[in-house]
Task: inverse folding
């Protein structure tokens, strides 16, 4: 009987710890001004956002997600696959536009919300954004750079690492 209770208690503890990690919430410091205020972005209603500060058009959702609230499983892939996917989407006229590509590290840095962590993103603008790394176009074989939206920091990674993808295009 004691082993049965122990197993039940251990199982409950594991279940709770897994649920807790999934339910972790973003932490923002309200005393710091937003670096990516929602009014800076114009939602076009077609899965795209225009950043009025940088003049870039972003896909609202990560690749693999869709809809107004970015539902679905985001795609995680190696850098070469991400670059190939960007080329395919870039010529596919998503939302009536071509020219979609992997963003530069500076472009990814421009959407980091400095007052928030886990994720360091404005969730009003980029819903369902996980606290994960996104690939940039910046690379130096055998590595490439990603922006980690856990704390909003850039990292150099082996290209074989799995990262997520948010595509961007120039308006001009």
Result:
């Amino acid at each position: 009987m004691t082993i049965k209770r122990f197993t039940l208690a251990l199982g409950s503890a594991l279940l709770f710890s897994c649920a807790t990690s999934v339910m972790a919430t973003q932490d923002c410091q309200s005393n710091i001004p937003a670096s990516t205020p929602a009014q800076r972005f114009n939602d076009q209603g077609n899965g795209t956002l225009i950043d009025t500060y940088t003049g870039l058009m972003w896909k609202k959702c990560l690749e693999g997600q869709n809809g107004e609230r970015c539902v679905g499983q985001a795609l995680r892939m190696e850098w070469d696959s991400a670059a190939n996917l960007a080329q395919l989407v870039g010529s596919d006229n998503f939302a009536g536009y071509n020219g979609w590509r992997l963003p530069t590290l500076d472009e990814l840095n421009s959407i980091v919300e400095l007052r928030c962590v886990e994720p360091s993103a404005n969730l009003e603008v980029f819903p369902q954004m996980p606290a994960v790394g996104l690939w940039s176009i910046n690379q130096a074989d055998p590595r490439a750079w990603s922006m980690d939206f856990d704390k909003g920091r850039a990292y150099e990674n082996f290209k074989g690492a799995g990262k997520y993808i948010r595509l961007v295009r120039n308006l001009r």
Remarks:
- Residues 1-23 have pLDDT under 50 and may be disordered.
- The longest strand covers residues 133-140.
